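Q&A log
Question type: sequence-to-structure
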Amino acid sequence: IALYKTTLASITRFHPGCQITDITVGWLKKYETWMLVENSNSTTILSIYLRNVRSVMNRAITVEKVMEQEFYPFGKYGYSIPEGKNEKQALDFDQVERIFKYKPPIPSKDDKKLERERKEKIRKTRAIFCFSYLAAGMNLKDIALLRIGDITKDTISYYRAKTSSRRKKPQPIKVHLTKEIKDILKKWGSKSTNPIDFVFDIYTQGMTPKEQRARIQDYNKFMNKYLGYLAVELDIPPFTTYAARHSYATILRNSGAPTEFIQESLGHESLATTQNYLAGFPDEMKRKWTEML
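Response status: OK
Response body:
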């Protein structure tokens, strides 16, 4: 809903009082120029907004019956929505292994307050990143929403916030509880036994959806800041929270796992989404296959 409101706000700035019947192929081309050239927005943002517009128009035709198909500006012979750039952030296996093997300095009583806090934040950021990777690439919002009741003796079972609301029968994603995951939960997770309490201290009970959105944005910025410090410390390319999910998927693929298994693990609705998610094959693998010819 929030993205649709943002889309509407953008359209209103471009065309105050715009009606759905005003949106033609010509209108869309002018809006594209306005977004990309005059306002310096990214192609990704433009494609998100225009997919929202297309969705509303599809509903206007098929459900609300307030628009005729002949006025539909998209489709085979209509306007094509530009493809957003998919920034793949996968780390390779060696880089992920270095993150896992790294032992961040433990804050000591001799440290100054700011240094103590910095060390603790790096330790926590690394732990959450590792948890995300080990938990089948669980994204930050789903980590924030994870509750004590989602964890049994051997399994984490949860529904993806991104897709569960639009599926008729959403399937839970199940993650095997490894020793490494248990260690992270023991150190950084809640000690509560109340099944409705959150596992991590990202969200608090009683937050509104708006407050949750603001909190997850702030927490993502916090994570990315300290992951940047970690990247410098380990001498690896800069990476963000998204790298855990992309790396999990890509390393699985490079290890020979079927794409269908990766799709199920990530909770993707379509195989195409998973294929688009995966980074390219490493040079070493390309050379190995080429030598087999």
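Response note: The CA atoms of residues 3 and 223 lie 23 Å apart.
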